[in-house]
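Changelog-adjacent note: as of this version, every example in the card shows the full chain rather than a window. The one below runs 358 residues end to end.
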Amino acid sequence: MRGSFRESPRERQEKLEHLILSPFASFADESRGRDRVEDDCDLRTVYQRDRDRILHSKSFRRMKHKTQVFLEPEGDHYRTRLTHTLEVAQIARSIARALRLNEDLTEAIALGHDLGHTPFGHAGERALTEVAPFTFRHNEQSVRVVEKIERRGAGLNLTWEVRDGMRNHRSACTPATLEGKIVRLSDKIAYVNHDIDDAIRAGIIREEDLPREATDLLGHTVSDRIDAMIRNTVLASADILEEAEMMLADGVELPAIETDIVMEKEVFAAMQELRTFLSKNVYSNPAAKSQEVQAENLVKYLYSYFLAHPEEVPEEYHACAEAEGMERMVVDYIATMSDDYAVKMIEGIFVPMRWDVY
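Full-length structure tokens:
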């Protein structure tokens, strides 16, 4: 920077946040920080740095070859774990911007929320839970990825707020920040609608098969339903935040003011009706799940194989074995694999290599 008397871009951004964001936003200069203290960046706030670290990580790139719902789909237009993540980020950013919450924190959480997914989606998650001596949860694994696996075990050293949002993006969890709550709801908006889109593309369902009461309220196309859910989330949440700001202006102490990110009850119920429909007609449909048994068996075999041959697990995972046990090391290694890589590992174990004889 030219001249120490000038403000850095980061400092200007931090001041700007306090001028334009809601008083209930997570301000970058008020973060609870990182496990390991670092010098500030001149250009980026802590949440912008976290977003960039996730975006440039190996785990993020691997998601392009991880299954969303359909295993080994024929065609280029079905969602993967990566495209799902990008859709969640877009939806979450739109909501955060409209509510004057921290868009950078929201985006970082959204980009990192599914880093811990196994190969073959929830089939791989179920398989690891069956064979490992602990329950595998992809949200908890996402945090392990950024704390203990990335950068050969050093982790990404992300802020507390980003890791909290990643850990708590499941329905049963409660994020500590409004930005985390945005991602939790945006995840549902994204997968409900793109799973419908993929299922229609696969010929499993038709638009006309969807519950009419839900589609009459939300819309009769995927884009209309996404728009309706985003708009309703913004409107319903804005009412809560505006009332909270008035309480703040009246002198009520900040910790005593309750805030939340919500939809109106009838809109949320319509979304839940679509989720129930998907569970009955898509997620358990043989056309969508025809390869799940094979996928689960593959993951289980990899687990037993690497448990018996720990020397074949890359060296960077071995520190984990010393600290937390061999089973944890093997699960971490398998969970990082893409679908393609897991299949290649099985082929390498079972399929003999050709000899080139001259």
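Structural remarks: The domain at 16-289 is CATH 1.10.3210.10 (Hypothetical protein af1432).
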